[in-house]
Specification:
The complex is a heterodimer of chains A (about 280) and B (about 725). Chain A is mostly helical. Helix content of chain A is about 75%, strand content about 0%. Chain B is an alpha/beta fold. Chain B folds into three domains: about 180 residues, D-Maltodextrin-Binding Protein, domain 2 (3-Layer(aba) Sandwich), CATH 3.40.190; about 170 residues, D-Maltodextrin-Binding Protein, domain 2; about 180 residues, MetI-like fold (Orthogonal Bundle). The chains are: A mainly alpha (about 280), B alpha/beta (about 725). At the A-B interface, helix 1, helix 3, helix 4, helix 5 and helix 6 of A face helix 1, helix 2, helix 3, helix 10 and helix 18 of B.
């Protein structure tokens, strides 16, 4: 291939990616524009530039609460704790199980798989009340533990399928070689297979984190102490029945989407390392 | 195992000690926005000063979760001592026994509250709450554009305004506001015995009048509360019909006044009469501190507890004594709203009242957006209303079902015993034991916290709640749904039509998600691509921003008059489109939003899958002299397939059940035609009178459809696998 064609092709690739990026960002820029405009705009507009830009709304959302405490800081920390713990608990629950489903043949495996798939098919519309009663019976209502357990378990089915597919793509020879070398099954799993499964683990962790990070309905129903509210609950309070403050809601939403993006930026190096790199290290 | 120990540690760290309740603490819940919250906080602080040793814990609950939170929390004994809500919800709260009557029926009279307001929060002779604040609409006038206040709607229609300005901005698609005009024409929304009455000549003339206002450019189309506030607040409207909460959007430099709603010449000069909502403090059932809670409510209903709510919270307080305070007299806007409230009609307290709004709004949108004739639209609305409030099915005998279940269990048990006696099976089980150690904790957790609540939810589909009684109705809900509730199988909104829409919705979305996600992942995976980390992060932005907000942003982009998409169309030389007036365009708007929301997930999964493909395979292909197209077809895609399959299968299921986009973007418009099965289920559960049993039956049917679909898909994939 000549240099000129290569150059043209690279240009085309960047053009497509820029187009996709524009598509991805355009509605978000409207949200940002709503959050930073000091005055309402009323002409139909094509470009989401803020009118009379201001940052006061961010200050208002983040600033201290009326009683002088910095509630937003506690709620942010609480949200990070809940979402991080959800990702962790979900991985702890799903990874060994997915490994077993990939490597062992056992009685009930098919049934397990079908049940897990079935849980995703069932709309949760009537399950919130039973879940509330269940967590209540376990003494976990209005605790972060209860919320983490509810989120983590609801993310487990996806995690199991995703990780199982990841493990399936890792050759069995890899763990068998470790077993031949005298490693036990858990050691082979921990030292050899897990490092090779990093892309799948990263995707799963991101998924579980976001499941918890953006969830509103369960958090609003289960939590009754303001300092434990997660950020979606805090933001939804701006959508009051009368006098909703969409500008504040938009500002909060922009802030709320920063941590997942930082997380993704950090996780993406795991998305690129293939299993060969892990195998050499193991 | 190390991993479980780490998990246990994490759990231990999370265990927060249960909050210690002070002896004298009283909990009050509300769903107020910012300004009203501030006023309430001040009032509560005054109460705390007056009652040393008592602490009030105020909780602002998001309005969207208020009713369901009250229901589950009070039912389980974790509710507040008292809460504030609108009077028209009283009958359903009383029916669900979430509130207790106040111990002293004459209390409200003793506090010198208005008898009309007392009646609104009473059932028969029992007083259930203390009126705190009033909500009703009035006419906001921008004096710069309208120096002479019009006394009739027609005068306002004829008023001269500069180009680009509106004469009257209001939510013309919201039955709450349109009711004022219906009342002027002598109609009403609900009869005292709970029948839908927004039909007949008076209603049709009122709705026809609304349509004329939009046609003639007096009022803007597709106006929601936000647009009303923006237009009036920016001085682009001569008048607005809204409540006191509009004050927050009026800049201090604007000269405004508030007047009662005008009279209507076409209705023989009768005045527009808005609805009045009385917000009351209710005593929750199971309150831990009922005396203190009552003392708090009493304080809030008297002048000292009302003044901060009025002066700071901008509420129209119900206390008559508070209005004698000169500080309140110096607030012209508040005084005007109080006068408007005197003429307002208290919203009927029949429990069917809340079922009127959804069908009425649909009818209004059909008339205003699609040009449907008012009589036909309102007749449709009446049918939808009758559907929502139809009497519950009669009780059935659960014995046959229990016997069948018992027999089924026996057969299963017998088969299990027979299998257990076979040595081959026992050997297989023994060989499986090591594997169980790896899966047991996950299955236990999912079984307890996911499967059990879902099963419990499924069981509710066999019941109906009549007040506090839970009645077994067998499969009546299923029969009802599958037969189109007595109308045609293929009538609008029937299960079968909605199923077709849902399948179309799933297929189109999934195809676009996978195509876009995989294509972008392949581009991003190219070696030596510059700016890769930047692209990758920017492309996941749609997944990171809370979708509640972005879905509403998309809805705004599709607005007929102010949306960016129509601006783009016009810029390109096209004609603006009423996106939510036709099925095809409304459906397309939903799909665009959902594709935007969903492609980053597929892209991330594909990226993970691509990097898991061993590099040596590419090297081998290159050595074999394969072209890049051949490498893509024979190496990349076949190896990417298996890792993508779970995401695609789950993506199909999630899209099938993605109700929030439909809910937030098209809202089912036009006429509920873009509704999918699961959004129907949510409507039955939350906007049509909490018919959980009926919603659960929808959920079970959705499950059944997906189950059959997955069996079918698996067989097809299996066949193809066998062929290749």
């Amino acid at each position: 291939m000549t240099g000129r064609i290569r150059w043209l092709e690279s240009l085309l690739v960047h053009a497509v990616l820029l187009g996709a990026t524009a598509f991805a960002l355009y509605p978000v820029l409207w949200v940002l524009s709503l959050a930073t405009s000091g005055a309402p705009w009323l002409e139909p507009r094509l470009w989401p530039w803020p009118v009379d830009p201001t940052l006061t709304r961010f200050v208002e959302v983040v600033g201290p609460s009326p009683d002088g405490r910095w509630l937003f800081g506690r709620q942010l920390a609480g949200s990070l704790l809940v979402s991080g713990a959800t990702a962790l608990v979900c991985l702890v629950l799903a990874t060994p199980a997915a490994y077993a489903m990939s490597r062992f043949d056992f009685v009930g495996r098919g049934l397990t798989e079908r049940t897990l798939l079935a849980t995703q098919m069932f709309p949760g519309v009537a399950a919130a009340v039973p879940l509330y009663l269940l967590l209540d019976a376990l003494g976990l209502i209005d605790t972060r533990t209860g919320l983490v357990l509810a989120y983590a378990t609801s993310a487990v089915p996806f995690a199991l399928f995703q990780l199982r597919a990841t493990f399936d793509a890792i050759p069995r020879e890899l763990d068998e070689a470790a077993l031949v070398d005298g490693a036990s099954r858990p050691v082979a799993f921990w030292r050899v297979v897990l490092p090779a499964a990093r892309p799948g683990l990263a995707v799963t962790a991101l998924f579980a984190f976001l499941t918890a990070w953006n969830e509103f309905a369960l958090a609003a129903t289960f939590l009754s102490a303001e300092e434990r509210f997660t950020l979606p609950v805090v933001l939804h309070r701006y959508a009051a029945e009368h006098g909703a403050r969409w500008d504040l809601f938009a500002a909060g939403a922009v802030l709320v989407s920063v941590p997942p993006m930082i997380l993704f930026y950090w996780l993406q190096r795991h998305l690129v390392s293939g299993w060969t790199a892990g195998a050499i290290k193991g | 195992m190390t991993s479980t120990r780490v998990g246990g540690l994490a759990l231990a760290l999370l265990l927060v000690p249960a909050p210690v309740r002070a002896e004298q603490e009283v909990v009050l819940w509300h769903a107020y926005g910012e300004v009203e919250s501030r006023g309430l906080r001040e009032a509560v602080a005054a109460f705390e000063r007056a009652q040393p040793g008592v602490r009030v814990r105020l909780l602002a609950v998001p309005f969207g979760a208020y009713a369901s939170k009250l229901e589950s929390a009070i039912g389980a004994g974790h509710g507040p001592d008292a809460f504030i809500d609108a009077h028209e919800r009283l009958p359903s709260y009383a029916r669900m026994r979430l509130i207790a009557p106040l111990p002293e029926p004459g209390l409200a009279v003793r506090l010198d509250l208005d008898p009309r307001h007392i009646e609104a929060v009473s059932i028969g002779s029992q007083l259930y709450g203390l009126p705190l604040a009033l909500k009703s609409a009035a006419l906001w006038v921008n004096e710069a554009l309208l120096p002479v206040v019009p006394t009739t709607l027609e005068q306002l229609e004829r008023a001269a305004v500069p180009p680009g300005h509106w004469r009257l901005v209001w939510e013309a698609e919201n039955a709450y506001y349109v009711a004022a005009l219906v009342h002027a024409y002598g109609g009403r929304l609900l009869s005292p015995d709970g029948r839908f009455e927004l039909q007949g000549p008076a209603a049709e003339r009122a709705v026809g009048h609304v349509a004329r206002l939009i046609e003639r450019g007096v009022s803007p189309p597709e106006a929601d509360g936000d647009l009303v506030r923006q237009l009036f607040g920016s001085g682009r409207a001569a008048a607005a019909i809204s409540g006191p909460w509009l004050a927050g959007d009026v800049p201090p430099s604007m000269r405004v006044r508030v007047e009662p709603l005008p009279a209507v010449e076409a209705a023989a000069g009768a005045p527009m009469v808005p609805y009045l909502t009385v917000e009351a403090g209710f005593l929750a059932r199971g309150a831990r501190q009922p005396e203190l809670a009552l003392a708090l409510l009493r304080f809030l209903a008297t002048a000292p507890g009302s003044l901060p709510r009025a002066l700071t919270g901008r509420q129209i307080v119900a206390s008559r004594a508070a209005w004698e305070d000169p500080r309140l007299g110096a607030e012209p806007v508040l005084v005007a709203f109080r006068q408007a409230s005197v003429r307002a009609l208290p919203m009927p307290t029949h429990r069917h009242m809340r079922q009127v709004f959804e069908p009425a709004a649909r009818a209004l949108r059909a008339v205003l957006r699609t040009g449907v004739e008012p009589g036909r639209a309102l007749a449709d609305a009446a049918r939808q209303f009758d559907d929502a409030v139809r009497p519950p099915p009669g009780p059935r005998n659960p014995a046959p079902l229990l016997v069948a279940l018992g027999l089924g269990l026996l057969v299963l048990l017998a088969r299990a015993v027979r299998a257990a006696r076979q040595p081959r099976w026992r050997a297989a089980l023994r060989a499986s034991l090591p594997a169980y150690r790896w899966v047991a904790h996950a299955l236990l957790a999912v079984g307890l916290l996911v499967v059990a609540p879902l099963l419990a939810g499924a069981v509710t589909s066999l019941f109906v709640e009549v007040g506090e009684e839970r009645r077994f109705v067998g499969f009546a809900h299923y029969v009802d749904i599958l037969t189109g509730r007595g109308r045609g199988l293929l009538s609008a909104g029937s299960f079968w039509v909605t199923l077709g829409v849902t399948v179309l919705w799933t297929a189109i979305n999934l195809a676009l998600h996978v195509l876009l996600g995989t294509a972008l992942a392949l581009l991003l995976h190219r070696p030596a691509l510059r700016l890769r980390p930047i692209y990758r992060v920017l492309l996941v932005v749609p997944w990171a921003v809370p979708n509640y907000v972005t879905a509403l942003a998309w809805k705004g982009m599709f607005h007929r008059q102010f949306g960016a998409i129509n601006a783009l169309l016009e810029w390109l030389g096209g004609e603006p489109i009423g996106w939510f007036a036709r099925f095809s365009t409304a459906f397309a708007a939903n799909v665009a939003t959902n594709v935007w929301l969903g492609f980053p997930f597929m892209m991330v999964v594909a990226l993970g899958g691509l990097s898991a493909i061993p590099r040596d395979l590419y090297e081998a292909a290159a050595l074999d002299g394969a072209s890049r197209w051949q490498t893509l077809r024979h190496v990349t895609l076949p190896l990417l397939g298996p890792t993508m399959l779970p995401a695609v299968a789950l993506g199909a299921i999630w899209t099938f059940n993605a109700f929030n986009v439909v809910f937030l973007v098209s809202g089912g418009e036009p006429g509920g035609s873009t509704e999918i099965l699961v959004s129907e289920a949510y409507r039955w559960a939350f906007t049509r009178g909490h018919q959980y049993g009926y919603a659960a039956a929808y959920a079970v049917l959705v499950f059944g459809v997906l189950w059959l679909g997955s069996r079918f898909a698996r067989r097809r994939i299996g066949q193809r696998g066998a062929v290749s």
